[in-house]
């Protein structure tokens, strides 16, 4: 038996001996009184001794009879039960925790799980080993150590599966009786750190990618400068070619720095929602007009389908222009040469019934594989790196779009099929319409822009 149980047995034996001595003292008092009476008698006969013996015997028997003690027995039963199952107050405390937690005994047997634990790990059955739900060697080793009386601590572990989850597991001992080294229960608290770890990884990847993207054109510039200062000092033909490449690399660095600064500014005010009422149709018109030269160079037509009345939203004009410009420019760059880009504005309620405006940009390009879609809005993520750089992309355009839409409390959705093009849709909450917006019809050579009625 463990040391705690042996000490408790010793204490129980001492209590029994003291109880017997307490009972015997009454008989000893009668015996002492009888001896005093006999000492005062002038003559002691056998009957006197027999009477004294019987008096002591009767006193002993009467005081030795145990009295019923139902309260003490109930207390012992309650103490035994409390050592096995947590009480109601302990369960209420567990339910008050927002994080998943399990209450187990020191033998790692599950006794209780709060609602958050059931939601995260599925249904549990009290009485099962906790290893049925938490199959983590490091955590099970920590539970065993704390169950033996060691101090609690925290371990981080990752669950591998369809989606990775990262938890910080803290094991804390719970002692009902004072003075015990081994706990009666253990509280296993699990804090979900998946999002924190993901952000840390994204930040590290962002720094690494930004450094790489800046270092590449910088290395190119340095190499050409050294060449022009050396072997090509007097080579006019190559000097002109090198200077053009250097200009392209400098422009690439400028675009990257501009996008980085833009992303930083958006993140700094992401908690402030714009409140200016603007017409999204005007923003689309402005972006299309700005991209007419690019569309003309590729022979692509832009078809704009507007609503029959102003599509008013609350937003920041410059930021929403940047969103539309990025989406339409991507459609022109990655769509089919000589094809069509459809820009549609329509009224559409959100999932919660909130009135809104949806702007979708559809190209007729080769489409995007489904495996890439969830990562398109990550910083510096490219489906085709060489094609992206050939199109002078920085890898930050869709990340900027995502952050701007999030600041406007909107939604960005992406759908695509191989060989059937891609659709990028931005949904924004609709504001009150205060004025009418006329339809727009513009044409320029092989470039057509039509505001048709929905």
Automatic annotation (TrEMBL):
Keyword Coiled coil present in the record's keywords: the answer is no
Gene Ontology MF annotations? ATP binding; phosphoprotein phosphatase activity; phosphorelay sensor kinase activity
The record's listing under InterPro entries reads: BphY/WalK/GraS-like, HATPase_C_sf, HATPase_dom, His_kinase_dom, HisK_dim/P_dom, HisK_dim/P_sf, Sig_transdc_His_kin-like_C
Q: Predominant location of this chain?
A: membrane
Location of this chain's protein in the cell: Cell membrane
Q: Which reaction does it catalyse?
A: ATP + protein L-histidine = ADP + protein N-phospho-L-histidine
Q: Which UniProt keywords apply?
A: ATP-binding, Cell membrane, Kinase, Membrane, Nucleotide-binding, Phosphoprotein, Transferase, Transmembrane, Transmembrane helix, Two-component regulatory system
GO biological processes: cellular response to phosphate starvation
What residue stretches are annotated with the Histidine kinase domain?
209-432
Task: Please verify whether the record's keywords include Membrane.
Answer: yes
GO cellular component, as recorded? plasma membrane
What SUPFAM superfamilies has UniProt attached to this entry?
ATPase domain of HSP90 chaperone/DNA topoisomerase II/histidine kinase, Homodimeric domain of signal transducing histidine kinase
- The Enzyme Commission number assigned here is 2.7.13.3
**CDD domains the record matches:** HATPase, HisKA
The residue ranges crossing the membrane are 23-41, 47-68
SMART domains in alphabetical order: HATPase_c (SM00387), HisKA (SM00388)
PANTHER family documented for this protein:
PHOSPHATE REGULON SENSOR PROTEIN PHOR
Q: What is this protein called?
A: histidine kinase
State the gene name recorded for this protein: phoR_1
